[in-house]
Write a structure and sequence with these properties.
Radius of gyration: 19 Å
Structural class: mainly beta
Distance between the termini: 7 Å
Number of domains: 1
Number of strands: 22
Largest sheet: 7 strands, antiparallel
Strand content: 25-35%
Number of helices: 3
Helix content: under 10%
Order of helices and strands: EHEEEEEEHEEEHEEEEEEEEEEEE
Length: about 350
């Protein structure tokens, strides 16, 4: 059966949640590249790191019959019970040894050490230079690992919310997950994956505890055919604490991730692909409108394609966790998308819809 969708609940720690995610991914289209011994969720204790590669059932350009494969990998770096980073890159940056390649870039604060994903590579979070008062910047070591977030007494710093896929060691503490249980939803299609994580009750009230990552090859906006010719880029889009980012994971001839850009604000050589604001999504005849992230481009080329694994609409017209039928690309049957959390307080603002049936998932 192609594709895979699952939603699981009741995790007290990020490390336990990711152990379940990794198990699901290995069983449904991803191969384990690191460590060399099979991953066992029942014995996994943080810290640990796992690197997975999208197989041919997830990436059409990494199948057995492809002459020149174009693989991409995802690394889950579980640094503590409540602290998880994610890297998405090629096997050159995420080799079987478990290392994460790093590079030096010049920034406004001088020479900074950054890993390959995001702002010249992204860890599914923000690089923070501290918040005044002599605070030291969050640094990345030669192994591509963040140091601890800004320290201090009292409430957890704001940058704890927007760093990493999951970063709640100060706010929740390693042993305090019972008050803030977590859930995840994982979607694997024949062209990529989407993973969303959230705190159950808190997300409904504040909207900032719903983080997600999408990695996929885009599709033709008319036919829905996956782009596998030319430079055939792989795109990564992510959300952390209400901030939205995008970067190119790889192209056929560029085997490293590109610069991380905003996904919701126009930047130099990069256009917004998500409207993250309150928006009008109703037509005159009472139908609601769903858009897919488009206006895609790499550093060299623009593509008239879109990312069909997620849709964007107003939170006012679709309720959370409802099933939304969408007929697209001239397909004979409607696809089903799951409406997820809103991005503003009190269930308002923008809402993403995530593919759950059809479009390669049955």
């Amino acid at each position: 059966m192609p594709g895979y969708v699952v939603e699981r609940h009741g995790f007290l720690t990020a490390s336990d949640l990711l152990a379940s995610v990794i198990t699901d991914m290995v069983a449904n289209g991803f191969t384990q590249s690191f460590p060399s011994t099979p991953f066992n969720a029942s014995t996994a204790a943080s810290p640990y790191k796992v690197i997975l590669e999208a197989s041919g059932s997830v990436d059409p350009l990494n199948g057995g019959g492809v002459a020149e494969k174009q693989p991409w990998r995802i690394c889950f770096d579980i640094q503590g019970p409540q602290r998880v980073f994610v890297y998405v890159a090629t096997p050159l940056q995420l080799p079987n040894s478990g290392d994460v390649a790093t590079e030096k870039v010049y920034g406004s604060a001088g020479l900074q050490s950054l890993d390959v994903i995001g702002n010249t590579g992204d860890q599914m979070g923000n690089y923070s230079s501290g918040s005044g008062g002599g605070a030291s910047p969050a640094k990345i070591s030669s192994a591509g690992v963040y140091s601890a977030p800004s320290s201090g007494s009292g409430a957890a710093p704001a940058d704890e919310i927007t760093k990493g896929l999951i970063m709640r060691q100060l706010r929740v503490t390693d042993a305090g997950g019972g008050s803030y249980p977590m859930s995840y939803r994982l979607v694997i299609s024949p062209r990529g994956l989407w993973l969303g994580v959230w705190e159950d009750a808190v997300t409904q009230q504040t909207s900032s505890m719903f983080n997600w990552i999408l990695v996929q090859r885009p599709v033709d906006r008319t036919t829905g055919t996956v782009l596998t010719t030319g430079k055939s880029p792989v795109f990564c889009v992510s959300a952390h604490g209400g901030q939205y980012f995008q970067f190119v994971v790889r192209e056929s001839d560029i085997l490293r991730p590109g610069l991380r850009r905003s996904a919701s604000i126009n930047e130099d050589d990069s256009e917004a692909i998500i409207n993250a604001q309150t928006q009008v999504s109703l037509s005159e005849d009472g139908k609601y409108i769903v858009t897919f992230p488009s206006r895609l481009n790499t550093s060299r080329y623009r593509y008239p394609h879109e990312l069909d694994m997620i849709g964007i609409t107003s939170a006012d017209v679709v309720s959370q966790f409802s099933d939304v039928p969408l007929t697209v690309y001239g397909e004979g049957a409607a696809r089903s998308y799951k409406a997820m959390q809103a991005n503003f307080f009190n269930n308002t603002g923008m809402r993403i819809l995530v593919l759950q049936q059809g479009g390669g998932i049955s």
